Amino acid sequence: MSNLTQTFSALGDPIRFAIVERLLNGGEQSAGDLRLVADISAPAISRHLKVLRNAGVIHQRIDRQHRMYSVKPEAIRAVNAWVEYHRKFWQTSIDRLEQALNREDL
After folding, report:
1. Lowest mean pLDDT among 15-24, 35-44, 54-63, 91-100
2. Angle between helices 14-26 and 42-54 (to 10 degrees)
3. Domain boundary assignment for the chain
4. Cβ(34)–Cβ(69) below 8 Å
5. Radius of gyration from C-alpha coordinates of the chain
6. Mapping DSSP to helix (H, G, I), strand (E, B) and coil, where does residue 67 land?
7. For residue 32, what are the CA distances in angstroms to 24, 38, 51, 100?
8. Residue 47's Cα: distance from chain center in Å?
9. Is 72 in a helix, a strand, or coil?
10. Strand, coil or helix: 3
11. pTM (2 decimals)?
């Protein structure tokens, strides 16, 4: 669960969330391309990318002078599994509540 906590913490920042969204929608991109998500300096984008890498959300690949970034599918699968588990829990609870309310109406 610790890794998932780091993932959610990293994604809790709007700029980092925007970076991941851009990578999900556009595929692998350079750090320079990712600067377009916000009006921030190169060192600031590097710090955001480091947080995402340390949390295991993105992967860095070096291509000559460029650092290329992509989303780690396993990180997204882990978030999806967590969301799906909790969605099912709450859906089951809501279904039971609905059934109880329907019995009351009779």
Report:
1. 91-100
2. 80
3. 2-105
4. yes
5. 19
6. strand
7. 17, 11, 17, 56
8. 17
9. coil
10. helix
11. 0.80
